[in-house]
Amino acid sequence: MPLRLITIDLDDTLWPSRPPLEAAERALYRWLQVCAVRLTERHDMASLREHRLALREARPDLAHDITGLRRVSLEQLLSEAGYPETLAQRAMEVFLEHRNRVSPYADASPVLRVLAERFRLISVTNGNADVERTRLSGHFHHALRAEQVGAAKPDPALFTAALAVAHAMPREALHLGDDPLLDVEAARRVGMHAVWMNRNATTWPAQLAPPEAEVADMYAFSHWLDDTQA
Ligand SMILES: [Mg+2]
To answer: Ligand 1 mean position to 188 CA, how many Å?
Structure first.
């Protein structure tokens, strides 16, 4: 059965996730130091994070929605510091603008451009990057985030939503991602093909069945596809 749909994870598959996240947290904190100074007198970046993690424990309904989690955390802290909760929305705009300033790996754009001519490409992410606001804008036919489907990987919701958008059967679809459990194992449980993006030469976890294929970058993925789809 030839492939029709390729779903692709974003963070650490197409760009390193840590630098833009850390930059966004710093930009948000600088903004709070100007616009909500009483909050930053009570909290540093570490205690903001602790508040968010505690909120995640208390609000499992927000576990899949990391943007919502961050916003509700800010609403609570702003309110405690005597600011209107609505300031949290503006704070989130600052955060997300910096969050989307990702630096894609050099292999991402050229390979996605070629793949998009042969397959339906849908990005599927647990994160809050909006791919259309990044330098990979225009490369995907469709983009899905966990907060839109109400559940994060390894829940099948992102994959079943992508299959529905592409009108594809699971066996006509392949997922590419860097996380053994959230990407590879989760996708093959749905019945999709799954390829592991292993950019840092890490070891596959022994408790999981080995992946169908492992690649170190998008060029290797493209070559693997050419071999298997020939
Ligand atoms: Mg990832």
So the answer is: 16
The one-letter code for the residue type at 2 is P
Q: For residue 230, what pLDDT is reported? A: 72
Strand partners, 215: 197
CA of 8 to the centre of ligand 1 (A): 9
Task: Name the token pair of 136.
Answer: 């990979």
Q: Return d(Cα 185, Cα 195) in angstroms, integer.
A: 10
Upstream peptide bond of 170 is cis (omega within 30 degrees of 0): no
pLDDT at 219 over 80: yes
Whole-number Å distance, alpha carbon 58 to ligand 1 midpoint, is 25
CA 82 vs CA 21, 35, 70, 92, 205: distances in Å: 27, 12, 18, 18, 47
pTM: 0.93
CB 40 within 8 A of CB 33: yes
Which secondary structure element, helix H or strand E, spans residue 211, and what is its range? none
Cα 183 to ligand 1 centroid, rounded to whole Å: 8
Q: 79 C-alpha to center of ligand 1: Å?
A: 33
